[in-house]
Amino acid sequence: MNKTQRVKISIMRYSIHFALSLGITLAFSAVLDAQSPNSSDPVIRPGLVEKITDKIHVIPDNFVRLVPNIGIIIGDAAVLVVDTGLGIENGMKVYDLVSELSGNKKIFVTISHYYPEHSLGVGGS
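RE: above sequence
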């Protein structure tokens, strides 16, 4: 096999690998976008709250990008909220739900880790 043939085979192999990689990337991208009809809209949906126990509730992320799972732990004297969502509007939704679930108990907020979608709703509470 001469040098020209080896180069052609190498180019063909790289082209095939590139095409396969691109196809796999596009396929995964389509699957991720299809997980939620509103995947581009990072809005917390308090109506989806799940009661785990009498004192533990979760607002699930519903597979929407930039929406965290939000934990609500109701104690005897206070409530702990784990993560608040992205922005004041989401924070207000979390606050309203927490107030509804717990009455007038004092509310404490903790952030699981500092990403905007986990912490920037603090101003809404």
